[in-house]
Design goal:
The chain is about 45% helix and about 15% strand. It is an alpha/beta fold. The strands form 2 sheets. The chain has a 7-stranded parallel beta sheet, with helices on both faces. It has a 6-stranded parallel beta sheet with strand order 10-9-8-11-12-13, sandwiched between helices. The protein starts with 5 loop residues before the first strand and ends with a helix. The longest helix has 18 residues, at about 85-105. It has helices at about 15-30, 45-50, 70-85, 85-105, 120-135, 155-160, 170-180, 220-225, 230-245, 265-275, 290-300, 310-315, 330-340, 355-365, 370-385, 385-395; strands spanning about 5-10, 35-40, 55-60, 110, 140-145, 165-170, 185-190, 210-215, 245-250, 280-285, 300-305, 320-325, 345.
C-alpha cells in the first residue's frame, strides 16, 4: 500500500517531551514515511534540537497575524460568532497565506495536540479554523489522541467535532462526552499514542541505590493555594530522605527556554536548591530526548509526576505511579487503567495541607510490588486497543 500525503498539526514543540513522544509514537504506530509526512511546528528549533527532522519533514507555523485578545482580534471573533463568516474571520485572524499553504500539503491531516479541546483558548478556535478549511479542500481530518472536556461542549465545538473524519480519544471520560452530545463522527477509544513510545536504552550514572523519580511542573505551583503544591513536594522528599535510603531524581519533561510556565527545570532547580546539601537529591539535565527519558523513568522504583506524558512513560513501563494533577486526562487515564482515580491522582487544586501528597505517596510505596505486578498484567491488555485505532486511521492514510 502507498501512503497518502499526510500532515501533522497542532504540535507545540519537542521542547515539550510529551509532544515529542506523540510525534515519535504516531510515526511508529502508523508506519509513516518521512517524505510523505509533514509536521507543522509552533517552535521548530525544539524539533531540530531533538531531531524530529530525521523522521518527518518539518515546517514552522507562522506567527498569528492578529493577536487573539487585541481589539481587532476580538472584532473578528465577534464577527464570526454573529454572522458565521468563517472565511473573513479565519483568513484575517490566522493568516490567509498560512492556511492556503497548509491546505495543499496533505490528503489526510492529524490534529495531534491532545489537550486543546480541554481549554477555552485561542488554540481550540484555531483547531476549528483549520478543520473547517481542510474539510472545505477535501482533506480527511483526524482528531488524534485527544481529551475532550464536557465543560467545553458548546454548540460550536460539537459542530467542529462533527467535521472530523475520525476522532480518537485516549480515555473513556472523553468518549462519554462525545456520546452525550451525539457526535456523529466515527469514534475510536485507545490509549494515548505515547504508551507505545519505544524507550532508548539509557542508564542512571553513578547511582547504586533505588531511585524515586519525581516530575514537578510550574502548574503545580500556580494551581495550588499559597504555594501548597511546592510545599507538598518538599514534605514528601523530606520523608523519603528520613525514612528510606532511596535516591531522588528530579526529572523535567517540558523545557521551553526562557518560559516560566512551560519549563520544569525551574522548579526542579528550586527543589534542588532547597536540598542543596543532600547528594541523594539530584536534577536530571535537559539533554535527554523523550525516548531516553522514558528509559530512565522505567528504572525508577516508583514515580510521582505532574506532566501527563511523564506519567505515561512510567505507566507504560510498569512503574507504580502517582499523578499530581486535576485534569480530565489525568483522571480519565487512571480510571481506565485502575478502575478509579482515587489513590492514583493527587488533586493539586484540593491541597489543603502539606501532607496530602505524602500520604498518597506512602500508600503507593508500601504497595509498590503489587502495583508493579498489576501493571505488568494490565498494560498489554490496555495497549491492545491501539490496533483498532491504527486500523481505522490507516484506512484513511493508505491507498
Amino acid at each position: 500500500m502507498n501512503q497518502k500525503d499526510a500532515i501533522l498539526y497542532a504540535h507545540g514543540s519537542a521542547y515539550n517531551h510529551g509532544c515529542e513522544a506523540i510525534v515519535r509514537s504516531t510515526v511508529d504506530l502508523l508506519s509513516l514515511e518521512k517524505e510523505k509526512t509533514l509536521l507543522f511546528s509552533n517552535n521548530i528549533q525544539g524539533d531540530l534540537d531533538y531531531e524530529l527532522n530525521k523522521i518527518v519533514k518539518i515546517e514552522p507555523v507562522n506567527e498569528t497575524p492578529v493577536k487573539p485578545n487585541s481589539p481587532l482580534g476580538i472584532f473578528y471573533r465577534a464577527h464570526s460568532h454573529l454572522y458565521k463568516d468563517h472565511e473573513k474571520m479565519y483568513y484575517r485572524f490566522f493568516g490567509k497565506k498560512r492556511y492556503e499553504y497548509m491546505y495543499n500539503k496533505g490528503e489526510v491531516a492529524l490534529s495531534i495536540g491532545g489537550d486543546n479541546y480541554c481549554y477555552d483558548s485561542g488554540a481550540r478556535r484555531e483547531l476549528a479554523a483549520t478543520n473547517y478549511w481542510l474539510n472545505k479542500k477535501g482533506t480527511k481530518t483526524v482528531l488524534w489522541g485527544a481529551t475532550l472536556s464536557d465543560k467545553r461542549s458548546t454548540p460550536d465545538v460539537i459542530e467542529d467535532l462533527n467535521n472530523y473524519s475520525l476522532i480518537y480519544v485516549r480515555e473513556s471520560i472523553s468518549l462519554e462526552m462525545l456520546k452525550k452530545n451525539s457526535v456523529k463522527t466515527e469514534i475510536v477509544l485507545a490509549p494515548d499514542p505515547a504508551f507505545a513510545l519505544k524507550p532508548e536504552e539509557t542508564h542512571w550514572e553513578n547511582r547504586n541505590k533505588d531511585i524515586i523519580g519525581i516530575n514537578i511542573s510550574p502548574f503545580v505551583f500556580y494551581c495550588s493555594e499559597k504555594g501548597m503544591g511546592l510545599r507538598n513536594y518538599i514534605v514528601m522528599i523530606n520523608w523519603i530522605l528520613a525514612e528510606t535510603d532511596y535516591d531522588i531524581a528530579l526529572i523535567p519533561h517540558v523545557i521551553f527556554p526562557n518560559d516560566t510556565i512551560n519549563n520544569d527545570i525551574l522548579l526542579a532547580n528550586k527543589l534542588k536548591e532547597h536540598f542543596s546539601n543532600e547528594p541523594r537529591v539530584f536534577a536530571v539535565n535537559d539533554g535527554y530526548n523523550c525516548c531516553q527519558l522514558k528509559s530512565l523513568i522505567s528504572k525508577c522504583k516508583v514515580f510521582v509526576g505532574a506532566r501527563t506524558h511523564s506519567t505515561i512513560a512510567a505507566y507504560s513501563t510498569c512503574v507504580p505511579t502517582l499523578v499530581v494533577g486535576y485534569s480530565e486526562k489525568s483522571i480519565g487515564i487512571a480510571k481506565d487503567l485502575f478502575g478509579t482515580a482515587e489513590g492514583y491522582v493527587c488533586n493539586i487544586q484540593n491541597m489543603e495541607n502539606e501532607t496530602l501528597l505524602l500520604n498518597d505517596f506512602k500508600n503507593l510505596l508500601y504497595n509498590e510490588k503489587s502495583a508493579r505486578e498489576f501493571l505488568k498484567d494490565r498494560i498489554p491488555e490496555y495497549m491492545a486497543n491501539h490496533k483498532n485505532c491504527v486500523d481505522a486511521v490507516k484506512s484513511l492514510l493508505f491507498r
